[in-house]
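Handout, page 2. Input:
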Amino acid sequence: MSDESGRLGEKPASDMLADQFVQKIGQQILDTLASAGLAAAAAQRRGVVPAEMGRLVSAFASIEDARVRHECLSLIEAISGSPSR
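Output:
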């Protein structure tokens, strides 16, 4: 059995393109943080990769309930030690 990539066990081309797009979004976010002088150095020291940042933003943007988004953001801030805003 094969998928749309034509090879068994490989990601479909559409998934690979989506992964690349998410990684580009993450890199743009990290670049913007670096330009603003916000947390970029700490993120690089901790090994934050663009794909993780892009996945986080994509997942967060998919949450429809504003209360749940707020709770998720508060949780991430608490884990990171950042003050809530």
